[in-house]
Write a structure and sequence with these properties.
It is an enzyme of class 4 (lyase). This protein has 15 helices and 31 strands. With 606 residues, it is an alpha+beta fold. The protein has 3 domains: 200 residues, Phosphoenolpyruvate Carboxykinase, domain 1; 273 residues, Phosphoenolpyruvate Carboxykinase, domain 3; 79 residues, Phosphoenolpyruvate Carboxykinase, domain 2. Strands 1, 4, 5, 6, 7, 8, 9 and 10 form an 8-stranded mixed sheet that branches. Strands 14-12-13-25-29-26 form a 6-stranded mixed sheet, sandwiched between helices. A hairpin with a 5-residue loop joins β12 and β13. The longest helix is centred in the middle third of the chain and has 17 residues. The mean pLDDT is 96. Bound molecules: guanosine-5'-triphosphate (GTP) and manganese (II) ion (2 copies). The site of guanosine-5'-triphosphate has 21 residues, from α8 and β17.
């Protein structure tokens, strides 16, 4: 069957832009049918049952995880593909040295070739969605067209989507981000589907000027749920540059002290470096309370009061499964145990539950993410290191009520952090906004399994946004500097830098982390109120001896001192790396960042 004349007369919208978009993509990709998503429970049931039918989903035991599903991807489709991700700005210079670029018309030519007929034998789902609140002053709409039911189900967890969104778009004739996604696996007449359709050829492409996203060949979250990384970070960062706000790879949490004082903290750590853990932290220090607002993305705008207000544009958690357990993240466990979740690339147990490395009570037998028999004695991992749970944020028992406030929350402190075995102390404070921007711009971390490629390699990951800045990173640093210049700095958040991952000589973590990170948060908010003492070092203000609350912590004084130590020789060794990193940007690097580097060198005695 060929879909030559597309009948949109029964489409549930009169929005001409949406209709034209759907028609154009359907004509190119030739799906068998078009389904307009409502976001209803009936639709969820229909889609999850269809996914069970194709073998993509295995339903978990409802007594353990109600309305939840296990999926295993093709082993070639397990993570974000940074080398296949492009920023196709009109001018190459706007892409900058940290992104892949191709001329937009050339890229469209290639991708039109790939998209031609690519949805044959499949249904095209039309997903109207909004990142952030539907009641926001300016709702941030998108429409994703996808030939994947898995993506459609996952989008329903991760974003506000469906009929209410479409109706509002229609009523207001709203602008929207056009997002096209195909797994790139058309089916010939009568051909059976595979459990995880995808394509060896993958492209994840952003067209920043057009605010458009074209994705091909992958079903993996970050490549396929286009509201998330592609829209809420890459495209939104360009909108934010143009309009004077910030779209960042940050968690948002609410911290209440024993005295009832509330502070809001945002934190940027690279993928698989602890945002989801910190966002749902269970404090070990008495009387302190953490509530979650977001675990991955923050959109931040200067409010009328001059403060920086943040919202989480998402509606679910797409969290790293391995390492998640009752100790490291009890609130995430409680959230997923309520059900309505999708687990991808973890292990399936014989009693219809899921398991992953780091979870309590290993099963005697399971099926690994590769579909092979697995036992605790197996040499291979049961779960891919980047296996994920996808679960509704509303199920989180410590979700702050402010999550539902379209204005968001005023941020008091920003933490930058990475995964470093050496050099970077547990905690220090920036001298001011510009120095904080320097710390963010030079943020370094060891690579993880969240992206394809070698792991454990130290690289610069500015503001934890290296794979997500939708334009020239030099201009992005300038944008951060300007936020400080154009606003009253005393009202902006104070900036801190943390490293949970420093090691001792035996390779063990110096700092116990997880719930104990509440001690770090306590020092941070005490600094805001001028209570906690700090000592000045070449890199910034480090907690003064005795100022970090370690009461009841099982840690020697030596280990604590080692965790907080600023080693001048180690920092001297960083300088050439920072120099080389800055050199990449040429004239696009704000001159004040060179001044910051000169200051650091001088303080190190270089
Ligand atoms: P994305 O969702 O990919 O953006 O990453 P994320 O920053 O949310 O990562 P997540 O919180 O899922 O981090 C998972 C990894 O960080 C696991 O390996 C955890 O064990 C580790 N981790 C998180 N917090 C801590 C900590 O305080 N100490 C130590 N040692 N490891 C931690
Ligand atoms: Mn992330
Ligand atoms: Mn996360």
């Amino acid at each position: 069957m060929t879909l030559t004349s597309i009948d949109l007369s029964t489409a549930p919208t009169t929005h001409e832009g949406i209709l034209a978009f759907v028609r154009e993509v359907a004509e190119l990709t030739q799906p068998d049918a078009i389904h307009w998503c409502t976001g209803s429970d009936e639709e969820w049931t229909m889609l999850t049952e269809a996914l069970e039918g194709t073998g993509t989903f295995t339903r978990l035991d409802p007594a353990k995880k109600p309305n939840s599903f296990y999926a295993a991807s093709d082993p070639i489709d397990v993570a974000r593909v940074e080398d296949r991700t492009y920023i196709c700005s009109v001018d190459e210079k706007d892409c900058g040295p940290t992104n892949n670029w191709m001329d937009p018309e050339q890229m469209k030519g290639i991708m039109r070739g790939l998209y031609e007929g690519c949805m044959r034998g499949r249904t095209m789902f039309v997903i109207p969605f909004v990142m952030g609140h539907l009641e926001a002053e300016r709702p941030m709409f998108g429409v994703e067209l996808t030939d994947s039911a898995y993506v459609t189900v996952s989008m329903r967890v991760m974003a506000r989507m469906g009929s209410a969104v479409l109706d509002k778009m229609t009523e207001t004739d709203a602008d929207f981000v056009q997002a096209i996604h195909s797994v790139g696996h058309p089916l010939a007449e009568g051909e059976a589907d595979v459990a995880w359709p995808c394509n060896d050829t993958k492209y994840i492409v952003q067209f920043p000027e057009e605010r458009a996203i074209w994705s091909f060949g992958s079903g993996y979250g970050g490549n396929a749920l286009l509201g998330k990384k592609c829209y809420a970070l890459r495209i939104a960062s360009v909108m934010a540059r143009d309009e004077g706000w910030l779209a960042e790879h940050m968690l948002i949490l609410k911290l209440t002290s024993p005295q009832g004082v509330v502070k809001y903290v945002a934190a940027a750590f690279p993928s698989a470096c602890g945002k989801t853990n910190l966002a749902m932290l269970k404090p070990t220090i008495p009387g302190w309370k953490v509530e979650s607002i977001g675990d991955d993305i923050a959109w931040m705008r200067i409010g009328e009061d001059g403060r920086l207000w943040a919202v989480n544009p998402e509606y679910g958690f797409f969290g790293v499964a391995p390492g998640t357990n009752e100790h490291t993240n009890p609130h995430a466990m409680a959230t997923i145990n309520k059900g309505n979740s999708v687990f991808t690339n973890v292990a399936l147990t014989e009693d219809g539950d899921v398991w992953w490395e780091g979870l309590e009570n290993p099963p005697a037998k399971a099926t690994s993410w590769k579909g092979e028999p697995w036992t605790p004695e197996s040499e291979e991992l049961s779960s891919h290191p980047n296996s994920r749970y996808c679960t509704p944020i509303k199920q989180c028992d410590i979700l702050a009520p402010e999550f539902d406030d379209p204005r968001g929350v005023p941020i008091d402190a920003i933490l930058f952090g990475g995964r470093r075995k050496t050099t970077v102390p547990l905690l220090f404070e920036a001298r001011d906004w510009t120095h904080g921007t320097f710390l963010g711009a030079t943020l370094s971390s060891e690579t993880t399994a969240a992206a394809i490629g070698a792991t454990g390699v130290v690289r610069r990951d500015p503001m934890a946004m290296l794979p997500f800045i939708g334009y020239n990173a030099g201009d992005y640093f300038g944008h951060w500097i300007n936020i400080g210049k154009d606003n009253d700095e005393s009202k902006l958040p104070k900036i801190f830098y943390v490293n949970w991952f420093r090691r001792d000589e035996d390779g063990g973590f110096l700092w116990p982390g997880f719930g104990e990170n509440s001690r770090v948060l306590k020092w941070v908010v005490e600094r805001l109120d001028g209570q906690a003492a700090a000592v000045e070092t070449p890199i910034g203000h480090v907690p003064a001896p005795g100022s970090l609350d370690v009461e009841g912590l099982d840690m020697t004084d030596e280990a604590l001192a080692a965790a907080l130590h600023v080693d001048v020789e180690e920092w001297k060794a960083e300088i050439p790396q920072i120099q080389e990193w800055f050199d990449k940007f040429g004239d696009d690097l704000p001159a004040v960042l060179w001044t910051e580097l000169d200051g650091l060198k001088a303080r190190l005695g270089l």
